[in-house]
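Q: Hi! First time doing this. I have a protein sequence and I read that you can turn it into a structure. Is that right? Here it is:
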Amino acid sequence: MDILKLVANRMSETYDLHRRFVNPQLVRVLEVIGFNRNYCAAEGAHLTDEKGQDVLDFLAGFGVFNIGRNHPQVIDVLHQMLDARCANLIQMDVGCISGLLAETLCSIAPGNMDAVFFTNSGAESVEGALKIARQAQRKPGVVYCEHAFHGLTLGALSVNGAPEFRARNEPLLPHCEMVPFGDLEALEISLAKGDKAAFIFEPIQGKGVFPAPEGFLKGARELCDKHGALLIADEVQTGFGRTGRMFAVEHWDAEPDIITVSKALSGGFIPVGAVITKRSIHARVFDSMERCFAHSNTFGQNDLAMAAGLATLDVIQSQNLVENSRVVGEYIKKGLEELRDRYEMLTEIRGRGLMIGLQFGRPKSIALKTGWKLLHSMNNDLFCQMITMPLLEKHNILTQVAGHGLDTVKILPPLIIGQAEADRFLMAMEDVLKQAHRFPGAAWTTVKNLGLRTARTSA
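A: Yes, that's right. Below is the predicted 3D structure, encoded as structure tokens:
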């Protein structure tokens, strides 16, 4: 098979194939908002569409490409593995390379971790963490936070605080209880019931980019110790340098019992994730030879994924990408804060490192207030398309909203970007904001028409 020739010959059919055989509703969304670019190549922080247009990627596959796309070092390692014709996935044996990746993960994780379970995705990592906690503590319940996003499989969905994802899936796991993010009093009330095996949280919530309030994570650590629950840090999106630290919990000096990771660990090549924990916890689950498969999967330790993980971590460390994330992230935040002071609808800049949320809010001036009310009466998710659509259409920068009904745009650029890419983004944002603050104007008309078109197609 000449796979490249096959793809080249049928590239023009991409959206039709997905419309017919995959997800036609997603295709409709992409076409309506003008995101149907049909990308055919990528390198570093840049995408190339079928027309040869360069697009600056400030989405990074929702945080997968911390080291950029198609990093040559990871490609070289994967070529080595393929050429070596390794004995992969024996199942009734263990591989050296998975042991090496486990050792590396434990060496960089906070909290004296020394046990790893490998998975294939972030949601599977969360599922594994929930099972390990419930079995280790011999309790059924889990506490989670409002607005949390931990994945969309049924177990992970049971600790997902987004009603739009939970809809049509109830009943989910019993004994799972939601508390407001940052509310230690509510957390203690829930833990004090005595049925909770763990409290799971995102150090910075991906949906909306909300960092943990100061004191919350240390307080949560103390409450978990007091009530016999484990502290689970979901670092699927925040891990591996995204926030300017290797792991986001390090900003608050909170040592979790379990850390879930995935996304950036793959380098964007082979799906891989992990549950990182302590041997004392792991041993309470895998507590006999009969229970060596107390939790298991088929592809979790596949050699290509393990090699991609080792190579990716080497790139992050050898190229000092954690520090680069901090420095460039601070530069972008400073630039955005200057824009916030000049444009009234940009109300807040949140986040750490290169995980940044741009919050928009109701304006005070009469004309803009009229436009704001009009768009929100049509659809609560409409306004931010007035930011993301021209960023892509006019400035060739890919971004997206941070969640349903939040009026928040999130950027997650690769950690390899420098000042040139940051300046390009900031200049584009200023132009987009300038147009958005002219009402009536072309930007408002475009998004209003989008809302009308969406309403018609949904009817």
